[in-house]
Amino acid sequence: MMLSCPLCASRDTEHFHRDAQRDYHRCRHCALVFVPPDQRLGPAEERAVYDQHENSPDDPGYRRFLSRLFDPLRERLPPGARGLDFGAGPGPTLSVMFEEAGHPMAIFDPFYSPDTNVLERRYDFITATEVVEHLFAPGRELTRLADRLSAGGWLGLMTKRVTDQPAFARWHYILDPTHVVFFSEATFEWLAGHLDMRVEFPAADVALLQRR
């Protein structure tokens, strides 16, 4: 069955993998791997999974995890740069880390901080850590975020990346039922070209895209 890619909308897609719970398709155009729409969780089921997360700015281990994006992005920001943490979750932490470093922050999360007014403002940088793999419409959402960036602004994304089909079949990352799209390095390079941005991969699982 040919499905439209939720990132680039191409219908040039192929079946990539099947496990006991779901199917996974791959776009030949942008290399995104995605779960068919009819195999995603509903909003209540999705929220129930997120409610089990226990992330907190008081957790040193969680801060170390986020530092993979925080450290290289902070090095690229001018003093006082304003940011948005998109998909902040039930225990916003990355925004706290940036505020401690002198960067005013806004947060948005469709379940926990759903004030859409913050999505109308302009920012010097936007972060999304362990978020893009949950997006049902990543093409629309990432385009909207890129449009909110000032010239020279940064979009910092952290998500584990697809390598090849054998590794995908063994990958723990696909076992989370809220993970519905999976990016590779090639996917991020396509995205950067589509958004007229440049992309860097400064750390494991991290992609930094800069608006020209």
UniProtKB/TrEMBL annotation:
Record's keyword terms, sorted: Methyltransferase, Transferase
UniProt-listed Gene3D superfamilies: Vaccinia Virus protein VP39 (3.40.50.150)
GO BP annotation list: methylation
SUPFAM superfamilies named among the record's database cross-references: S-adenosyl-L-methionine-dependent methyltransferases
InterPro entries: SAM-dependent_MTases_sf (IPR029063)
MF-aspect GO terms: methyltransferase activity
Origin: domain of life: Bacteria
Name assigned to this protein: Methyltransferase domain-containing protein
Species name: Halomonas daqiaonensis
Source organism phylogeny: Bacteria, Pseudomonadati, Pseudomonadota, Gammaproteobacteria, Oceanospirillales
